[in-house]
Each structure stands twice: as structure tokens, then as C-alpha cells.
Amino acid sequence: MTARRRPMVRLGDLIPDAARALGLEDELRLSRAIATFEALVAERVPAAAGACRVVRLEGFSLVVEADAPIVAQELRLRSSELLAAFAAAPGGAGARELRLHVRPGGRRV
User: Fold this and answer.
1) Is residue 47 a part of any domain in this protein?
2) Do strands 61-66 and 52-58 pair parallel, antiparallel, or not at all (unpaired)?
3) Which of 29, 57, 69, 92 has a CA that sits 20 to 30 A from residue 36's CA?
4) Tens-digit pLDDT profile for residues 43-78
5) Between the CA atoms of 93, 100, 52 and 54, what dihedral angle is there, to the nearest 10 degrees?
6) Residue 91 falls within a domain, yes or no?
7) ∠ CA(65), CA(82), CA(42), 5° rounding?
8) Would you say the pTM of this structure is higher than 0.70?
9) How far apart are the first and last CA of the chain?
10) Total Cβ atoms within 10 A of residue 72
11) What is the pLDDT of residue 92?
């Protein structure tokens, strides 16, 4: 007697369906957007890495908080480049606008 084996499936391919079934689709989308944005900033604007973060997705807008005005300004200057790379990335979530806010109170500890 031989047992039938199902074809192997990558765990990463199962996550979207599991998230949908658990009602966590929006959280998964945000998590992927955060990871994608962090990687792009580290690669394209290394001086801003760790000094900014995605706080939410609003429709087609990516809302980012910067620790200092100079970080927000640098991201604004490179917003077209960042958005193009973000849209092309798998976790890009179709964002067309980068909305930047400076974190009140200065630098995060």
C-alpha cells in the first residue's frame, strides 16, 4: 500500500490564503509594504534608513513618518524614484502617492 503524496507547496504561497481566511489580509498587506519600503530606503536613501517608517496605507497613498524634517525632505526629493521602485516590488501594494509626516517630538529612542 502506497500513500499518495500531495505536491510540495512553498509556505510563502500559503500565507495569503491563510491571512484571508483569518481576516488578516489588511495586516499582511501593511506588513509587506513596510518590509518593502524599508528595503528600498536602505538601498536608495541609506542616510534615511531607520529614521522613517510606514505607518499606514490609505487607498493608493503610502503614509510615512520621518524622525526629522531633513529625513522627510530627502524622501520627498526621491519620492518619484521610491514610488516607482515600490510599485515594481512584489509587496508594493499599488501605492501612487507618498505622504510624509515628521514625527512630533523629534528622534525616536
Assistant:
1) yes
2) antiparallel
3) 69
4) 999 999 999 999 999 989 999 999 999 999 999 999
5) -30
6) yes
7) 70
8) yes
9) 62
10) 20
11) 78
CA distance 2 to 101: 61
Calpha distance 8→22 (Å, rounded): 23
Question: Among the residues of the chain, which ranges form H helices?
Answer: 11-22, 25-44, 69-77, 79-88
In a domain? residue 109 = no
- Chain centroid offset of residue 12 CA: 17
In a domain, 23, yes or no: yes
Report the number of distinct structural domains present in the chain: 1
* DSSP 8-state class, residue 23: T
How many CB atoms lie under 10 A from the CB of residue 63? 16
Range of the domain at 81: 11-102
CB atoms within 10 A of CB 105: 7
